[in-house]
Amino acid sequence: VLPHLDILERSSYIVDAVKRGTRRRRPSAPFTTSTLQQEASRRLGFNAKRTMRAAQQLYEGIDLGNDGTAGLITYMRTDSTHVSEQAVKEAREYIENRYNKDYVPAKPPTYKTKSKGAQEAHEAIRPTKVVRHPDAIKEFLSRDQYKLYTLIWERFVASQMENAVYNTLRIEIKAGESQDAMPYLFRLSGSTIKFLGFMALYEDTRDEDAAPDEDGGR
Questions:
Q1: What's the chain's average pLDDT?
Q2: Fewest CB within a 10 Å sphere: which of 23, 47, 82, 156?
Q3: Are 81 and 29 in contact (CB under 8 A)?
Q4: Coil, strand, or helix at residue 19?
Q5: Alpha-carbon distance 16 to 29, whole Å?
Q6: What is the pTM of this model?
Q7: 13, 75, 94, 99: which one is catalytic?
Q8: Residue 45: left (phi > 0), alpha (psi -120 to 50), or beta?
Q9: Which three-class secondary structure state does DSSP give residue 127?
Q10: Is 75 known to be catalytic?
Q11: Can you state the angle between helices 33-44 and 143-159, rounded to 10 degrees?
Q12: Which residues pair with residue 216 across a beta bridge?
């Protein structure tokens, strides 16, 4: 290492290339049982038993006072990322009203179920009604129920939102003791948010169901 440091201290440096571009980040799919347990562990510190206990309660039904008892989420044991057309429609209407049409994709996002033999007749875990914002029913929920319902609600709504867009910059710098001999190459890269997209609501941690980012350099 030391010989290289000695050479670099004596070297000249030139900017060899500058590349600007954009990168798109897609939201993650709505929850399956496994991804719900993973995200609840990472974000909330819940173990699988605690997660599923709260999910079971939300599924079976919560007393919402004058609105009666209602199941707040779809069935919580599923390996499918499928979502009904009606739920997609409700989410898109909510997103446009809450944010604006720029946050609504031209076509609803679709997500592939990675689990072999997944039962596509089942849906992903989602709120039964998008209009039931977590804060609107917080008074009727226990602490665990509220935290988990918020996680499920935000993840589902975000899954139907537009991609986040980043401006990207990559710089390549060459170094060497002479203009004719520059054997060292350094790369610097960075990005800044251009459009928040789904991240205006929910910045998810990445998991195995997440789609890869899309790069668009120029």
A1: 91
A2: 47
A3: yes
A4: strand
A5: 40
A6: 0.84
A7: 75
A8: left
A9: strand
A10: yes
A11: 120
A12: 22
Rounded to an integer, what distance in angstroms lies between the CA atom of residue 170 and that of residue 189? 4
Lowest mean per-residue pLDDT among 122-131, 155-164, 198-207: 198-207
One-letter amino acid identity for 129?
A: K
Q: Contact 152/125 with Cβ under 8 angstroms?
A: yes
Tokens of 149: 């319902």
Q: Which residues touch 167 (CB under 8 Å, ≥6 apart)?
A: 20, 21, 22, 191, 192, 193, 194
* Tokens coding 176: 């060497």
Place of tokens 């440091």: 5
Can you tell me the distance from the alpha carbon of 116 to that of 43, in angstroms, rounded to the nearest whole number?
27
Which amino acid is present at 92? R
Return the closest-CA partner of residue 157 out of 78, 75, 110, 94.
Answer: 94
